[in-house]
Batch of 4 targets.
Target 1
Amino acid sequence: MSEPKVQVGEMAPDFEIVSETGEPVKLSDFRGKKVILYFYPKDDTSGCTTQACGFRDTYPTIEEKNAVVLGVSPDGVKAHQKFKTKHNLPFTLLVDDQHTVAEAYGVWVEKSMYGKKYMGIERSHFVIDEAGVVIEAARKVKPAESVTNAVAALG
């Protein structure tokens, strides 16, 4: 397996993409707060819903730790809006339809299903401190473990 692009102790790659509201969001806008940046394959699929609802259910704890959650997938604005509304998600979903952010973090990878190979998001999360430094990088995570581990990494 290749080394992940983004390592603990490094500055998290900055980016600017749009949220589910169509507004541009920059990672650097969150300096001074911790950020759980998580990547998931597709809105409203079972694992992605488990992961998103896990972050929703622990959001009060996340906020107490001076942190925010940003969910990233290739889905568009409308799909994100529907997913956020359906599951009452209190955090921002980001549209990475060109997968530039996923590529910058090394989580746009070759996958295989039923013998077919295709490119897609590797479920992962990165916890970033107030200065923009990665304090946890977890790839190929299980949905529920991702939530537990990311929240624990906030300290």
Target 2
Amino acid sequence: MKNEATGTFDVKLAPVGGGEGPIGSMSINKTFHGDLQGTSVGQMLAFRSSVEGSAGYVAMERVTASLNGRQGTFTLQHSGLMDKGAQSLTVAVVPDSATEGLTGLAGTMNIVVTSGQHDYQFRYTLPD
């Protein structure tokens, strides 16, 4: 079945390691509210260039949640770029990463941050 889940999430980022060098590492902890109910843990690698508004990050995030009345886990892969302020972000379910009632889950997530609030729009398919 094809579906769309929407809602908000709270996120806590914390530096991992000494923070030395041009590439930083952060831990990710999220709580999802709305159509996707649950939590996630993950890790992000990020680089900010010397040019204002230019940066990149990648992340892996393991989600434990309830979605469409089904419970399980799945992994999201993030790839984000900023080019002098112009942003692009891809967040997708890693194929075959879902377990239990979410086995077979596929999809992409759009994240919008407005005035500090994090909203998501998750377009997904889930076998019957």
Target 3
Amino acid sequence: MKKIEHIGIAVKNLAEANQLYSTLLNTKPYKEEAVESEGVTTSFFEVGESKIELLAATREDSAIAKYIEKRGEGIHHIAFYVDNIEDEIERLQQEGFKLLNDQPKRGADQKKIAFLHPKSAQGVLVELCEDINK
């Protein structure tokens, strides 16, 4: 793992959260994107070498909608950048980590992604990210 790629924050209202984080970080989001497969709309802010990803549900059955219903708004996951997501998935499985998806899938911000089960990481949902076009 190379660096913290981003911290994902679940929000109820993306427009309101964009306004709040724009004020907090003194910058505008550089990208807003719908990820239909996950039932979310995302917004990204650059903070130094890392990013903040705001995630708002677009469907009641999405993981973010369920998360907010159960836990409320707040930090949802931490994402780490990796050079080769397939190799990292294999390495982590060999180390005994449970993954939510054995194969990477397309995520927001031109990334291939995979998630570790929170029970494998002391209650933290961990995302692995690799650039699609590297």
Target 4
Amino acid sequence: MSGGQRDVAQVELSYRPTVEDFREALGSRAKVSVSARRTRRLMVFAAVCMVGAAVLSLSGDDGVDLPLVVMPPLVLLLLLGQTRMQAKGLHRLAAAKGEQRIVVDESGVTVATEQGATSLTWQAAPRYAETPRLFVLLSGDKNASSITLLPKRGASGAGDTDRLRALLDQRSSRIGAARPTRAGLLAGLAGVSSSDIP
């Protein structure tokens, strides 16, 4: 660009993080993280084994082995509460930094807080997910070890969410995009709208 002109799309966000923001972000991360999927499968396998052992213990004549009966519900609670506990811990860290001011533009993302600022290039966040309340930028490694939250409620102007989505689509790959249904594919081939199909 010449003459100091800037034709750069820029979206600014300002927000205070919530536990729910981190819960949604961690849920998005878990869908692409190899280690998160492996951990979840391992915990489910352990819970199934413990339930099986508890059933065998209850059906045996030797009496009830209390640890085998108590452990499956505890493992299930841990499995269900794991994301919530992580979200609370991350929220405590982020809340201590105060309000987050984010600028998203062609060069990347800058997050500023009362304690400092961090810049992230698009190469560091090559993919993103969209949830009902936020956009989640994810690093490209197999465990998505770095996440950046962009809450939709932080947008200051009308249309900023759509502009942000368009900018993310240009610079990152969307994960978890809705896959076309069979009816939608057939409708596309037939030249009709998928909403016309029951």
